[in-house]
Each structure stands twice: as C-alpha cells, then as structure tokens.
Amino acid sequence: MVRVRFAPSPTGYLHIGGLRTALYNYLFAKKMNGIFILRIEDTDRARFVEGAIENLISTLRWAGLDYDEGIDKDGGFAPYMQSQRLDIYQKHIQDLLGNKKAYYCFCEQARLTSLREEQSKLGHQPKYDKHCLKLTDTEIQNNLENKIPFVVRLNVPVSEPIIFFDIVRGDVEFNSDVLDDQILMKSDGYPTYHLANVVDDHLMEITHVIRGEEWLSSTPKHILLYKFFNWEIPIFAHLPLLLNSDRSKLSKRQGDVAVEDYRAKGYLKEALVNFVGLLGWTAGDDKEYYELDEMINAFSLERVNKSSAVFDVQKLNWLNAEHLRKKPILDLLEMLKVELQKSRFNTKVFSDDYLLKIIDAMLPRVSFTHEFVSTAEYFFDIPNSYDEETIKKRWKSNSAELLLKYLEKIEALNSISKEEFEQALHKTAEENSAKNADLIHPLRLALSGVGGGPGVFDIAVILGLDEVKNRIKIAIQKISNGENK
Ligand code: GLU
Q1: Residue 193 CA: which ligand 1 atom is closest?
Q2: Over the stretch 205-226, which tens digit does the pLDDT of each residue have?
Q3: Is residue 128 classed as helix, strand or coil in its secondary structure?
Q4: Contact indicator for 77, 203 with CB cutoff of 8 Å
Q5: Is 250 exposed, middle or buried (0-12, 13-18, 19+ CB in 10 A)?
Q6: Has 252 been annotated as catalytic?
Q7: In which region does residue 280 sit, left (phi positive, over 0), alpha (psi from -120 to 50) or beta (all else)?
Q8: For residue 357, how far is its CA from the centre of ligand 1 (angstroms)?
Q9: What is the atom index within ligand 1 of the atom nearest the CA of 11?
Q10: What is the mean pLDDT of residues 80-85?
C-alpha cells in the first residue's frame, strides 16, 4: 500500500512550490490507489505563524487536493501535528542516546561560535568537533542534574559513504564527512526537522518521500537515522527546483509565489493545478491541457525531470483561458455574477438571459472571469466617454449624419435580429453612397465607446433595439458636439 505525505511547516502561506509537492504526492497516491497524508511539521516554534495551518488546509481544499489523513481526519496514525508528538520523539531520542548513535552536547554558544570562526579561517567546512562525545557518563549525569542546557546531536560516522536511491536522480551518494553532527533535539525539548521527519515517516508507514530538491542535502542525515534505528528506508523522489524566467530561484522578489495571490488574481484552480503539474513533469508527449483526472492517469514519478522548471506566466494565462472555456455555462454565469458584485455595477440588476448572451459573446475573448466585466463594461452601462484614439481614427465628418440615417432605418423595426441590424446598415450605406465600414466603426464607437470587442451586430443584439437607438443618439450628441470627456 502506497502511503505518501505532504509535510509543510506552518510558516505562512502555501508557496507555489509547496502546491507542486502536494500535487505530486496527491497524483501519485491516487494513481497507486494509495493514501495521501497531510502532516503538519510545526516543531520550529520560532517560525510558527498564527492561522497558517488553517490557510494551508483551505488552500489545499480550494485546489481540490483533499487528503485522506490529516489533523482532522484520523486514519489510525494520529496525531498528525508534530507538536503533539513530543513524547514520541523523546522516546526515540533515548533509544539513540542509549546506543551512542546520538549524544548530549552541553557546549555554550560562545564556544560554538569561536570554533566556527577558527574553521572558517582555515578554510574548513564549519562542523561541530564532537567535543561532548568524550564526556563520561558521570559528567553527563552531573550536567543533567545541574540543569545545564543541552542539545542532542547525531553521531555522524567518519568517512562513510551514504548511498540512497532517488526515483528522479537514480543512486545518490554522499560521504559522511560532509555532514555535521546535526542537532536532533533542541534545548527547548523540541526535536529538529530531521528527527521528527524520519520518526514520523517511519511510524506513519510512509513508502515514498516526495519533496523539493532543497531537501536533498538533508537526506543523507535521514538515511543515517533510518540505519541507526534499523528501519526500512523509504523511496525518495526529490522534485526539481522552480525558477523565474531569468533562471533565478522562484522568489517573492520577482513576483507572486503564494497560491493565494494567484487565487486572488482570478486564476482558476483547474488552471493553476494543471500549470503546476507541468513544472517538472511531462507525460512524454505534447499534451499540456489536463483535467485533474487525466493527470492522475498520466502521472508517474519516473517521468519527473531532474532539471529545474521555469515558471512561465504566459503559459499559466493560456491554460487559464483554456480551462475557462471548458467551464459549464451555468458555472460561468455564477462567476460573472460574483464579478459584477465586486464591480461598480453591483447595484444594477441584469437578467440571467442577458448575462448568458454576454458570456457567449465574450468567452473567446477573455482569459479571466473578471475580464467579462473589465473588458466589456459597455454591456453594463452606457459608455460615459468615448475612446479618443478611436474617435480620431474612425469618426469622420459624415459619421453623425450616417448614424442618423441608420437610426431612421432601424426606428421602423420593432424587434430586431443580427441579420436585420446588418441589412439595415448595408442599406443605409448604399443609399448614402458610403462604405459599410463608414458606418460600422462609428456604430461600434457609439454602442461600446471603444474600438474592439465582439462583432458590432452581436453587441447590438445583446443591447437590444431601444438601447441601440438611445446610444446612437447620445453618441451623436456627445461626439459631434465635442462633449466627450
Ligand atoms: N517540513 C518540511 C517542509 O516544510 C518537509 C520537507 C519534507 O517533505 O521532508 O517542506
């Protein structure tokens, strides 16, 4: 039975990289009919942020990555929050101390600092010098009785090769000499990440550890711990780094990195999840558009790349548009209503029928739901001004007169279709020895205030005959009289 976990530390928001780690764990679990666990790694009290756990959970739920076991879903391995498992870590640290795989260290900060300075001066890698490993049992006992603050360190063996298998990278080898005698238990009685992570992965029967590349250098320490405890080593998969388009590490300085920022900007969860899924994985073909189910089917850890993945916001925007167009029309209707509520048109009432027509006309032209409103405000109100550039280009000396003639033509009709609007325009142009374009552009300006958008007759049909007539009259007055502001 495959059991995987996403193990974030609650230090703030969910990073895009965190979403990718969660997603790959989720995809792998679903694909293998396994269990996806959310474990909260909150042993670093200094970095704990109030509300971060709730935020993580709600963001994962928003993205559709529901976990099978977690702090509010016990699958028989609770608790899933490390701060509630301190007695478990205590027991395990005692085991390591008992067989000298870990040792008490009573060194004061001042000694550690000068040791590090000396080593740096000599050009050596700063490492603890195992000073306290030489303490006798009586010395240790005395120090403990005298309540001298201590940490517990990992007793890293000298010059030993440490080899482990990583699905993404194959066999990875480190020499133990590059490892420091890592602190496993801090003076406040809390374990460090390394101890808690390994103990929990073992006790929670994690089969595959899927996490970001930044943890790769921690893995040899973890391997030592598995060996010292005599535990089976899980399979590792370290996911490639995420980069900005200039190939610097994806960071807040270059743009948004929090999932909630993308959510707030109006990205669809389907698009963001699809996009993040492609940051380091492909099925080996050209396919880029994925529904979550399709991605589960296609996913494999073997096809995760070693090389870093570049965050390409253009691709994300393209995927957003693609996913938007696949949405059921009634979902789009609800989304448009939400956008209207947030807009300056929130006091106006529009019928569903009217809004559905707008969606139909605008869907090929928008990438985000808010663009239904922001790029087509003319559907929700008479233009309060007309684009000056377009006036300069499109409003000729005869435009007002032609529009008046057109007005007369359509006055004669009572209800009107796209074809009738169009025929009336052709007729007007013909009768006045003008080109269709001489009317089409001023008409578009009169109806929408701008130069682009859906076909002008589509706009006219949506607005309806009365509104079209009204807008033509107002435009003639405002533009011809130079009242445009
Ligand atoms: N708590 C670590 C983090 O914040 C977990 C790393 C791991 O998956 O082992 O990402």
Answers
A1: 1
A2: 999 999 999 999 999 999 999 9
A3: coil
A4: yes
A5: buried
A6: yes
A7: left
A8: 48
A9: 4
A10: 98
pLDDT (tens digit per residue) in 324-371: 999 999 999 999 999 999 999 999 999 999 999 999 999 999 999 999
Residue 453 Cα to ligand 1 middle (Å) = 48
Residues with CB under 6 A from ligand 1: 7-9, 41, 193, 197, 211, 215
CATH class of 85-239: alpha beta
Secondary structure of residue 436 in the 3-state scheme: helix
Instruction: Give backbone dihedrals phi and psi of 250, rounded to 5 degrees, phi first.
Output: -60, 115
| Signed CA dihedral, 470, 473, 475, 477: sign only | negative
Per this entry, what is the length of the chain?
A: 485
What CA–CA distances, in Å, run from 221 to 197, 413, 416? 11, 82, 76
The whole-model pTM stands at: 0.93
Please report, to the nearest 10 degrees, the dihedral formed by the alpha carbons of residues 16, 18, 21, 25 taken in order. -120
Whether a cis peptide bond, with omega within 30° of 0, leads into 79 is yes
Query: Closest ligand 1 atom, CA of 9?
Result: 4
Query: What architecture does CATH give domain 382-485?
Result: Orthogonal Bundle (1.10)
Integer-rounded Cα radius of gyration of the chain? 33
Residues 6+ apart with CB under 8 A from 188: 45
Q: Which CATH architecture has domain 259-325?
A: Orthogonal Bundle (1.10)
Q: Using CA atoms of 190, 192, 197, 202 in order, give the dihedral in degrees to the nearest 10.
A: -60
353: which residues sit within 8 A by CB, 6+ positions away?
none
Of 73, 100, 249, 252, the active-site residue reads 252
Measured CA to CA, the distance from residue 265 to residue 253 in angstroms comes to: 18
- Tell me which DSSP letter residue 327 carries: S
The structure tokens listed for 485 are 């502001």
Beta bridge partners of 164: 172
Nearest atom in ligand 1 to 211's CA: 8
| Ligand 1 midpoint to CA 11 (Å) | 11
**Residue 74's closest CA among 23, 45, 27, 35?**
35
Probe target for ligand 1 pocket from 53, 193, 213, 219, with the most ligand atoms within 8 Å of CB: 193
Q: Over 70: is that where the pLDDT of 485 sits? A: no
Cα 124 to ligand 1 centre (Å): 29
